[in-house]
TrEMBL record:
Gene3D superfamilies the UniProt entry points to: 2.30.30.100
Species whose genome carries this gene: Trypanosoma vivax (strain Y486)
Protein's recorded name: U6 snrna-associated sm-like protein
Pfam family, one: LSM
Domain Sm: 5-69
SUPFAM superfamilies (alphabetical): Sm-like ribonucleoproteins
InterPro entries the record matches: LSM_dom_sf (IPR010920), Sm_dom_euk/arc (IPR001163)
Amino acid sequence: MATLDMEKLLHKRAMCFTVFGEAHNGLLQAVDNNFNTVLLMGHGAGVDQAAKEEGELCFVRGESVMYVGFDDDAAGASGGSSES
């Protein structure tokens, strides 16, 4: 089974989708084994102006997370998936 080291994706642009149909954009600050997710708001498309100004943190409880998506362009630009 393939695994993904989420630590390598910290501080990358991400979008967290929930079972409630919500989508939260920001920089991934933390994620644990239960998919509890913390995003720094104000980074990414669709973020409201107040969040951009404040740099708010958004906590999403893992039991409501459907998946966390990452911007492939951002990962590629920083060399995110190169193997040696």
